[in-house]
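User: Quick one: structure for sequence A, then sequence B.

Assistant: Sequence A:
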Amino acid sequence: MLSERIVTGALRILNRSYLGQQPADVTRLPVPEPGKQYTLYLHIPFCERLCPYCSFNRFLYGEERARTYFKALRTELERSADCGYHFATLYIGGGTPTILVDELCETIDLAKRLFPEIKEVSAESSPNHVTDETIDALKDRVDRFSVGVQSFDDTLLNQMARYDKYGCGEKVFERVQLAAGRFHSLNVDMIFNFPSQSRAILERDIELVKATGANQTTFYPLMASPKNRRELARTIGAIDFAREAEYYRIVCDGLAPEFEPASAWTFSKEKGGMIDEYIVDYDEYVGLGSGGLSFIGGRIYNNTFSLADYAARIDSGQSAIAKMGKLYGRKARMRYRFVTDLFGLRLDKERFLRDFGVPVERGLWAELAFMRMAGGIATDTPEEITLTMHGRYLLLVMMRETLAASNDHRDHERELLPPEEKLLLNDDALMGCEPVGEECPVPC
């Protein structure tokens, strides 16, 4: 599809500039803008097993190092309050945030005490952690509970290294059903356009999502970094971007009419539910924890990826920020607003004019002209711009490329980790070894 190739090519060029970062000596979080509310993201970088296609910052789990990490994270959380931040929403991702439910609950409770204005909490989980114990602990703390399923197909689960970890598709389905109706929003995370995924597998996955009782689902396109794309091509098969738009249409048509689009890739039974991408709700956000990413004052800040360096920085009273990007210019910030608003399905023209002093038609005339020519605009009134299904797909492509570029950055940062932490990036390093205690060869 020509429009997809144009967007993909343009984003791969632009993201080199927009997402580029350099080492920085930042002693504390930047001062927030008075009266402004931000979104808070907390990163929990631990998993019992590591999925080969995943580029997020994650390490093999060990109880001692995870508890040490949670303690440091809560200290960093307190310091963000000391800086004067106000957070309206809290998102907790990973890794596997529910790896230690007692630590997670303590962290959520602290966040709500420090920031009583937080009105919504979203937390991710893995199927093996969806138990009555976990649900009972979180149902009054978490508004949106998101379970990472990816697929119910046993062949795909094996290829994703998830079958041994979480069980067969039938078992995963039962886990999701257990949580249905017990959270305000129960979200099922799925992947589409995995190399070996057939149309029949995708259609079956859609029907099973609808049968779980979940009231929200997110279907992500596979967003592998260049390194992971090469590895997938070697072991399973190359990602077929040519069929991505077709698979997206299958997702949209298959979920309708029970599920309506809430963002370009999230679908909800009820309007107004929380979605997975926190950048849609608020212009700027603060990311805490190892590898946490912040966008503050038009600049990207990135916390250290090293667990040891993160702990040392927090213990010494320093900021965890290790790198930062260049300051976004006016055009870059307009483009950022354009993408984030339309990814959330509606660009507010009056807000755009108020914030940038120029109508979107003049400030981003080329971007709008492209979207119109591509058939991406559904409505264009004095108040707003909304998207057709093809327009939503083009915004999905923009987000796919942006997150794939971020994953490339994460891959690079992992290469810089000390040798003892690189061991925690490989399941084989701990095979046959209990990852906690004095006998383990990997320091906890």
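Sequence B:
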Amino acid sequence: MNERKDTLIIGRPDLAAKNSFQPDIQITGQGNETVSRRHASLSRTEKSGEYILTDIGSTNGTKYQDDSENWVPAQESRVTKQTKVRFGKAEVTIEEIVKQYNRKNPPFFHPETRKIVDPRF
């Protein structure tokens, strides 16, 4: 059953491969051709609303916009929900990524344990 994750993998979905790995967060739309299948990871920290963004060997890089609005390579970088991020040429905010994941993973009633399971990130 779905359990709460501490780290999400971000990447481009592989629509041709039905049984292969699919990222937790799928970057689709404009610019997604520059996104690797396993592009970056996003991990929660002990502080609410703060995350660690890490490029995981992508071809076109992962960058985030710092406080001076410079684009900086993501290498275990602390970011917040408001941070703008680029996966290759695709640009989103951390908040958009988290919302996308949470929409696909709402809380549910577990029939065996008879408890509410909250897999949201």
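The mean pLDDT is 92. The chain has one helix and eleven strands.

User: Thanks, that's what I needed.
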